[in-house]
Design brief:
alpha+beta; Ubiquitin-like (UB roll); metal ion binding; 2 iron, 2 sulfur cluster binding; DNA polymerase, domain 1; 17% strand; 34% helix; iron; 2 domains; 5 strands; 2Fe-2S; globular; iron-sulfur; five-stranded mixed β-sheet
């Protein structure tokens, strides 16, 4: 299989990589870049566990070929934490107990971040819409919605 040269900026760091023509972004992130916070759940774009942000848009990385995002800026869950500590979303998820088994959490955080980056004061319905592509088997969603609301309030403060 032919290898393609791609350049990606992931969590602020530039990478020049060789990828297969059919290699998914999820596999590149996990296998080549060793960033394993992005999870593989369903492999068909239904669960949201693999959500990352590509050029400011939340996408299911299992449904995107790496070659399609050549030249893009990508943020994974590992890109949330900074030198000053946890991101306000991460803090809110902990505070509101929005983490149960944790498998869906990276995707939920990334979908929430994409929302708050474009809409820092979302309504409850806008939060629900932004998260509707992310499945959680443990929380019942209310704690997650509460956490996103809390993070939005902190962001606006």
């Amino acid at each position: 299989m032919a290898k393609l040269d791609v350049e990606l900026t992931v969590n602020g760091e530039k990478h020049k990589l060789k990828v297969g023509s059919q290699e998914r972004l999820l596999d590149t992130i996990r296998e080549q870049l060793k960033l394993t916070g992005t999870k593989e759940g369903c492999s068909v774009g239904e669960c949201g566990a693999c959500t990352v942000i590509v050029d400011d848009q939340a996408v299911n990385s299992c449904m995107v070929l790496t070659a399609q995002v050549d030249g893009s800026e990508i943020i994974t869950v590992e890109g949330l934490e900074s030198k000053s500590g946890l991101h306000p979303l991460q803090k809110a998820f902990i505070e509101k107990q929005a983490v149960q088994c944790g498998f869906c959490t990276p995707g939920m955080l990334m979908s929430a971040l994409a929302l708050l980056n474009t809409n820092p004061e979302p309504s409850k319905e806008e939060i629900k819409t932004a998260l509707e592509g992310n499945l959680c088997r443990c929380t019942g969603y209310q704690q997650i919605i509460d956490a996103v609301e809390m993070a939005a309030e902190e962001w606006g403060a």
